[in-house]
């Protein structure tokens, strides 16, 4: 059964870095766009970044320059590298899959979702 599983969350100090992983078991990355989203008390599903089936990437202006998306097709895994983390980056982070041709992280376009991983940025 195809599923998405996030990992790599945790507690990090402001200015620190984390790498989130999305294990996309059962999803052929040649046919899906994988996106990263986060949920906070004030934003239900904020789209951050996505990588399309052909490897093109999009990063939202809100995190551009700090967050980078990449993938390892051999491992069927998509990564979100987060640098210069701020307290306002504290959220539950999700990866999600959409059919190929999806080029931006608009939550309503993504059908399959992982369970999320908590990221807390604090002293």
Structural summary, described in words:
The structure is a single chain. This protein has no helices and 11 strands. It is mainly beta and 123 residues long. Strands 2, 4, 5, 6, 9, 10 and 11 form a 7-stranded mixed β-sheet that branches. A 4-stranded antiparallel β-sheet has the order 1-3-8-7, with no helix packed on it. It is globular. It starts with a strand and ends with a strand.
SSE layout and pairing:
Blueprint: E1 5-7, E2 10-12, E3 18-23, E4 32-39, E5 46-51, E6 57-59, E7 67-72, E8 77-82, E9 91-99, E10 112-113, E11 117-121
Parallel strand pairs: 2-11
Antiparallel strand pairs: 1-3, 3-8, 4-5, 4-9, 5-6, 7-8, 9-10, 9-11
Low-confidence stretches: none
Largest sheet features: 7 strands, mixed
User: Helices and strands: which structural class?
Assistant: mainly beta
Give the overall silhouette.
globular
Rg, rounded, reads 13 Å
Q: Strand fraction band?
A: over 45%
Number of helices: 0
Average pLDDT taken over every residue: 96
CA(first)-CA(last) distance = 40 Å
Number of E-state strands? 11
Helix proportion: under 10%
Order of helices and strands: EEEEEEEEEEE
Tag the structure with descriptive keywords.
four-stranded antiparallel beta sheet; 46% strand; mainly beta; seven-stranded mixed beta sheet; 123 residues
Q: TL;DR of this structure?
A:
This protein has 123 residues and is mainly beta.
